[in-house]
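Handout, section 3.2

Students often ask what a structure token actually looks like in practice. Rather than define it abstractly, here is a full record for FADS2 desaturase. The first block is the sequence as you would receive it.
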Amino acid sequence: MGKGGEQGGEAGEPAAQIRFYTWEEIQKHNLRTDKWLVIERKVYNVTKWASRHPGGQRVISHCAGEDATDAFQAFHINPTLVQKFLKPLLIGELAPGEPSQDRDKNSQLVEDFRTLRKAAEDMNLFRASPLFFSLYLGHILAMEVVAWLMVFYFGTGWIATLILACILTTSQAQAGWLQHDFGHLSVFKKSSWNHIVHKFVIGHLKGASANWWNHRHIQHHAKPNIFKKDPDVNMLHIFVLGDTQPIEYGKKKLKYLPYNHQHEYFFLSEILLPDPIFPLGSWLDPPRVPHPPLFPPDCGGKFCLKSIWETHHNPPFIPKICGEAQSARKKKIKKAKMQNQTIYSCRKQAWNKFLESHWFVWVTQMNHIPMEIDSEKHRDWLSSQMAATCNIEQSFFNDWFTGHLNFQIEHHLFPTMPRHNFWKVKPLVKSLCAKYGVQYEEKPLGKAFVDIVG
């Protein structure tokens, strides 16, 4: 049971009662209906509030009954503001004789890591560069413009479509890395601005849900490569990962798929799983689509923005730009044009998804899948992240190609740090790992890809 204590109040006020708790008692409160957290030696009951947590209630559940100080600092860019929400949830503190870390964690390692984080803050490594992100967004928009111009000048034949698909795949992949920056609150000083831009980028440029991303990805960062806690290693019986899961499946005689061939159907899943509704017929054998005119007759010979928009995006609703000439279009011509645009759009999107899905899967999995994948071991923040992540050698191409996720170790240790500063904090991290004998793994890009199949 918690122990009672007294704390003197201000003059004329009664002394406030403080309850002290032991780690043994705190660790019992790690259930779905009973969650306690410890942050900087203070004990919070977050059971009822967890459902309102912006990052989702599961990430809090994953840290229940533990010291969540480092996780709390890692995910919040303004901990002082968040403390106001925690204040009503405060129920006590760790007993004076209790260590600050639970489960015999190395307290000196934990303190040294927190000192490292403070040093990074003093070096302004958590401050984003407006120029970097402006140029990054600019090169994405530039590729979109080049893709449009290609359609007008070179048509929509097979060669043009393949080149166009490569350009759009690149812009979409880079937009994916950009939404990742905003999702981690690493661009603007205020969380609200990061959330707003994140919803725009992932919603309008990528066609995905910001809430869905936030719900899954924060769990991944809190407990990387931990079964039943990291959604990224919960492969829904399609793959068995790590060293322990195959043994468990073998003992239970679970065989949903031929797992001894998963290194082969892994490639097929990359094509089918991202978007299984693509019309394969038009992808494999699409008819040739006529060149869209820059000055179409139905626009009175004038430059027609509608033709440009339809050719590139083929959305369900197109603004009426061409005036009365649009309404005068013959139904037969309109129907034929819509069919051609649909075929072209399907062909372009199929190639985009094929290329982008491979790009995304290989880059995101090379840092985690070859690493340790196991059940919860209740490590400290540094040790848990290092066991589940590895880096890829730095180069200009690797930085750009992976959206700086080649610095996966630094990104996992400091999720809100702007990516252009990872290389600055890297020497500090390597030095701390060497001091405590924690493995810091870094490999070439090619070997990282080979290790995924391995």
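Discussion prompt for tutorial groups: The chain is about 50% helix and 5% strand. How would you have guessed this from the sequence alone?
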